[in-house]
Amino acid sequence: MAEVTFIGLGNMGLPMAMNLLKEGHSVTGFDLAEDQVKILTDAGGKSTNNINKTIQTADSVITMLPSGKIVKSVYLGDDGIINNAPENLLLIDSSTIDVETARDVSKEAVNKNLKIVDAPVSGGVGGAQAGTLTFMVGGDKGAFNSAKEFLDIMGGNIIYAGLSGNGQAAKICNNMLLGISMIGTAEAFNLAENLGLDAQTFFDISSTASGQCWSMTSYCPVPGPVPSSPANNDYQPGFSSALMLKDLRLSQEAASMTTSSTPLGANATSIYEEIENLGHENIDFSGVIKLLQNKLK
Ligand code: NAD
Questions:
Q1: pLDDT tens digit sequence for 7-57
Q2: 125 touches ligand 1 (CB under 6 Å)
Q3: In Å, how far are 180, 193, 271 from 184, measured between CA atoms?
Q4: Is 108 close to ligand 1, i.e. is its CB under 6 Å away?
Q5: 19: burial class by Cβ within 10 Å (0-12, 13-18, 19+)?
Q6: 109: confidence class by pLDDT, cuts 50, 70, 90
Q7: Which of 139, 248, 269, 281 has the least C-beta neighbours within 10 A?
Q8: Domains 3-163 and 169-292 fall in the same CATH topology
Q9: What spacing in Å lies between the alpha carbon of 183 and ligand 1's midpoint?
């Protein structure tokens, strides 16, 4: 049994922490939202109001936070985890953040003889609950090997992506592709309908032809062909347009930092920005089809 300090018990973090608890680990949680912490303590976890004290006896710290700025505030600075951690403590940041911040935090941690990985996830809240997340992991191989014991409990697919920041790089490149492919799929279904082609018929053809992709076969943006897709549930997320926009913006920051040309990524970002400007950022990202159909007011 290991001592785990878990920071950020939101939609993703709470079920991840619960899975560690179920596996017999001792989990101490911290979140600004006390009701989230209470769910963990009611299930047998512990809470803390003094992270720097708690980590003195911890084997690992896991963070699942909203942004790079918050990750920096938790790890860096005089009161941050890195400055107060005992030597060799294992740090796992599973938040989706920019590559640069992940590398900055990692550098500080390694300078203090701590083990650290960036380990963002794919698989959403359902995957977090089921313990089937995909983890894309960047960092030193030794740190990866230490983290794997915990990641194996929370995930089904743990992939080493190389040095620090590479987990985040994999995550934002994947999600840029996902945003682009969802818009493309939605455009195709919308055009098919406007041409008088039934959605199911188009699905039957395209899902076995060269247009096939995950956005079509697992997450189809029209109701009917894939019964589990959010389109069948009035576009309730799933994966919200707000989270897609967050990841697309990270991809565009990274593209600009590396002078990479990503015209479709840029276009996808503006399309999801339009959804946000219309106040519909909480719909599932497959709801982009409603934007194309002029149904988002
Ligand atoms: P969330 O907003 O539900 O949870 C974040 C939690 O962090 C909240 O409970 C908040 O109170 C807490 N928090 C914020 N600042 C804090 C601080 N300084 N100290 C302690 N707690 C703090 O978000 P989420 O959906 O759980 O997502 C978490 C991360 O996972 C994000 O980086 C997101 O991009 C990524 N992610 C989310 C999904 C998804 O489907 N929700 C999928 C993949 C990746």
A1: 999 999 999 999 999 999 999 999 999 999 999 999 999 999 999 999 999
A2: yes
A3: 6, 14, 12
A4: no
A5: buried
A6: very high
A7: 281
A8: no
A9: 25
Ligand 1 atom nearest to CA at 33: 11
Looking at 3.40.50.720, 3.60.21.10, 2.40.480.10, 3.10.350.10, the CATH number of the domain 3-163 comes to 3.40.50.720
pLDDT digits (tens, 9 = 90+) for 175-187: 999 999 999 999 9
Tens digit of pLDDT for each residue in 72-89? Answer: 999 999 999 999 999 999
pLDDT tens track for 196-242: 999 999 999 999 999 999 999 999 999 999 999 999 999 999 999 99
Q: Which CATH superfamily is domain 169-292 in?
A: N-(1-d-carboxylethyl)-l-norvaline Dehydrogenase; domain 2 (1.10.1040.10)
pTM for the model:
0.95
CA-based radius of gyration for the chain = 20
Active site residues: 171
Q: Whose CA is nearest to atom 1 of ligand 1?
A: 10
Distances (CA, A) of 297 to 107, 238, 261, 292: 46, 21, 32, 12
**Domain ranges across the chain:** 3-163, 169-292
203 Cα: distance to centroid of ligand 1 (angstroms)? 35
3-state secondary structure of 221: coil
| CB of 223 shorter than 6 A to ligand 1 | no
Q: What's the 196 CA to ligand 1 centre distance in angstroms?
A: 42
How far is it, in rounded angstroms, from Cα 96 to Cα 202? 35
- Residue 30 corresponds to which tokens in the numbers above? 């911290």
Q: Is the CB of 13 under 6 A from ligand 1?
A: yes
From ligand 1's centre to the CA of 14, what distance in Å? 9
Owner of token pair 């014991």:
149
Nearest CA to ligand 1 atom 18: 70
Q: So what's the pLDDT on residue 8?
A: 98
